[in-house]
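Async update (no meeting this week)

Hi team, since we skipped the sync, here's where things stand on the single-chain job. The sequence we agreed to prioritize is pasted below, unchanged from the tracker. I ran it this morning and attached the output directly underneath so nobody has to dig for it. Comments welcome in thread, and please keep replies under the output.
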Amino acid sequence: MMQNSKSIGNKIAEARKKINLSQANLAQQVSISAQAVGKWERGESMPDIMTLNRLAEILGVDLNYFSETFKSYKSENSSETTEKQSVEIPTTKSKNNSGLNWNMSSGNWVDADFSGLNNLKDKFSTSNMKNCKFISSDLSDLTLNSNNIVGCDFSNSDLRNSKIKSCDLSNNLFIECSLIDTEVSSSEIKNCNFSESNFSGIEFKTTELKNCMVENVIWNLSSFELSHISNIVFNGTIEDCSFNNCSFSKVTFKNVTLQNTFFKGSKLKGIQFIDCQADRMTFEFLKNGKADLTGLTLLTE
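Output:
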């Protein structure tokens, strides 16, 4: 079951009662109204990640307590010990710039707002995330391994030097993101919007990129290897890039300038060119791969 406001509300109420804290007292410590606490506990609304971190401190629980995979806890303010976690989730010892000390790996998250966070590193691996927000976050050096991410918004975030492995990403927004030197492998990415993002140095290996928007993306030293690309429209300048033994289906290069770009393989028939130009080397690579060169002309020197 995905984590939701109702389950979090139940956990807040349970932890609050175990330390004999009233809704009014809890509200005072969090600097909100008692009515807001009541809405949390009834599942009518949900605190953001910063407030959850504050609640964890007040209630004497680890932040992972609010995850569905955590079944019970031992309060620092109570001598009563209940059952142990049904799933062990390691907690990182390092803190990020916001003072958080937590690890959301192996969790299930829905409608959570993580916007503006930084130094996440490998804290979300093997997690399921749906309709979450990571807007304007520093996700550099992030590791996502075996994640299922649906309907999330990463717009204006920094994902440079990240590693995305064995993940399923669908219907997500990556508008104006930096994906410089990011490594994507053995993953499926579909129906995502990467418009205005920087893909310089990105590497796609054994990955499927399908039905994604890449309008005005920066392509420089970007590489695709043993990947499948379908229903994609490229535009702008593609320079010093490579497509090594990839397959294409309904891929369009429209108003594109191709320079020093390597195409290797015999499955280039799924490519269409509309008002494109290429330098001599790139043109010969495409010709050798039996691509349909209609709509592609040589750059004048």
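Quick observations from my side:
The CA atoms of residues 9 and 40 lie 5 Å apart.
Helices lie at 5-18, 23-30, 34-42, 49-59, 280-288.
Reply here if anything looks off.
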